[in-house]
Amino acid sequence: MKKIVLTLSVVSALAAVQAMAQTAIEDADGNGTYSMDEMKVAYPDLTEEVFGQADANADGALDADELAAAREAGLIPA
Q1: For residues 22 and 74, which has the higher predicted lDDT (pLDDT)?
Q2: Are 9 and 17 in contact (CB under 8 A)?
Q3: CB 27 within 8 A of CB 62
Q4: CA–CA distance, 50 with 22 (Å, rounded to integer)
């Protein structure tokens, strides 16, 4: 019984850590922003429409503030 409880505790802890981890987005060109192509690597289901909503200044890229706002608004998963 102790092994089952310990195993369930470990599984629960790992699930919690995974849920809290944010998806890593690579800034492939190193310009400090994330293009649609860079975002699609991390979020394959991301649409142009959602990207456009997140791109508050309409410059064709997401900066850190736009990405954080999009995550807070639920447009882009954390």
Answers
A1: 74
A2: no
A3: no
A4: 18
Backbone angles phi, psi at 68, to 5 degrees: -65, -40
For residues 54 and 26, is the Cβ–Cβ distance under 8 A?
no
Q: The tokens of 16 are what?
A: 């919690």
Among residues 36, 58, 31, 57, the alpha carbon closest in space to that of 48 is found at 36
pLDDT tens, residue by residue, 15-52: 443 444 578 999 999 999 999 999 999 999 999 999 99
